[in-house]
Amino acid sequence: MTHHTPTPPVRGCGNTPILKQRGQREVFCGLTGIIWLHRKMQDAFFLVVGSRTCAHLLQSAAGVMIFAEPRFGTAILEETDLAGMADAQDELDDVVARLLARRPDIRQLFLVGSCPSEVIKLDLSRAAERMTQAHAPHVRVLNYSGSGIETTFTEGEDACLASMVPVLPETDARELLVVGALPDVVEDQMLGLLAAMGVTPVRVLPARRSEDIPSVGPNTVFALTQPFLGETTQVLERRGARHIPAPFPFGEEGTTAWLAAIAAEFGVDAETFARATDAPRARARKAIATVAEGLRGKTIFFFPDSQLEIPLARFLTRECGMEALEVGAPYIHKQIVGPDLDLMAEGPVLSEGQDVDLQLDRARASRPDLTVCGLGLANPLEAEGLATKWAIELVFTPVHFYEQAADLAGLFSRPLRRHGILKDLNGGVAGGAMGRATGRMAPAGEEGSA
């Protein structure tokens, strides 16, 4: 399958020194991952053990109407719980019992830790074990932390999937396990491509329903669709599964390389591979070329947010003609993103973690054409004349595989077009009078966690 391997640059970023930042950071907490996980896992329920602030965060992020029946909720810790005047474990048992009586469709229940439950050292693992015994076999109860003390934005999904791995059934069968939550329509496209290549059987984590949960064992090989699944990768490897390293399936090149790595693992011949991929590859290349016209030659600066930054920078620089000035990520797991680093030409600063004030200084000094950052930084930077892209949209929008490649490029071209229009309307100054009048920089941490 070597002829499907992308041609790396003369000097890639695999050995580029990484700037380690350890300071104030701007990022959502891991509770946010519930917003896409509860849509994916159709008979699961996510119960956050936290404060009213946690509840407001989830309600606002999900846009849930008051009469909706979402698959998540918050068990509110009151003052008596926080002060140790009530037995929080007993109260949690009562909340869960009422929830399961009202929602008999629940098959998996996740107790999700938050900042308040972490602070009072509420042992949710013990609670999960106790509740599993009480409600088995109808319901399995698991726990993980989405606390802003312990997790950032996408680490909530990582912690959730990692909590599931130890209880997956054992198997000796040779199977492909695809790991990472994708929108159903994108997952169906992926499964169709793998089936056309003759790769079977294919299991998915997380599964849409509990009866479809995969098994895992020493003959399991797994491919990641999301680059933020470091803990899940480690737990799967402890179960004996083996990771297939590959660039992530963003854009035509990344998708082809991801599929080619799986094809090589399962001995798919070049003719079969071409038959399955040539048509969607051609569509993706044509669609990207049209959208990328507004991106070629533009510079981009990534603040750390979602851990998607390195694969996205690879896509934008190689397939859309952009120049990356700095690529920041909350964590850089070279075992996972190494293939993307190898394909990205040497040049950008690679930074891990964040010291937001120092990074803001570097962004202002470099004046990129487009800055990818969190909500707390975007508006103030726009007021300073910098075009921005909300990082959170890159997680909530379908962007993987061939059919979404042009949509992914469009997420970056649209803010540049908008910025250009506003600049023309304001006489050459983006942001305008109102922006200059209200352009206060948000204090570090204001975007913050629940």
Give me a quick take on this structure:
One of its GO terms (molecular function) is 4 iron, 4 sulfur cluster binding. By secondary structure, the chain is an alpha/beta fold. The protein has helices at residues 34-40, 52-62, 79-82, 88-102, 115-119, 124-135, 155-164, 184-196, 230-238, 251-265, 270-291, 309-319, 334-343, 356-366, 375-383, 393-396, 405-425, 432-437, and strands at residues 18-22, 44-50, 72-76, 108-113, 140-145, 175-179, 202-205, 220-224, 242-243, 299-302, 323-329, 349-354, 370-373, 388-390.
CATH architecture of the largest domain: 3-Layer(aba) Sandwich
CATH topology of the largest domain: Rossmann fold
Helix/strand class: alpha/beta
Strand order of the main beta sheet, please? 1-12-11-10-13-14
Provide the CATH top-level class of the largest domain.
Alpha Beta
Strand content: 15-25%
Name the helicity range.
40-55%
Low-confidence stretches: 432-450
Q: How many strands?
A: 14
Specify the biggest β-sheet: 6 strands, parallel
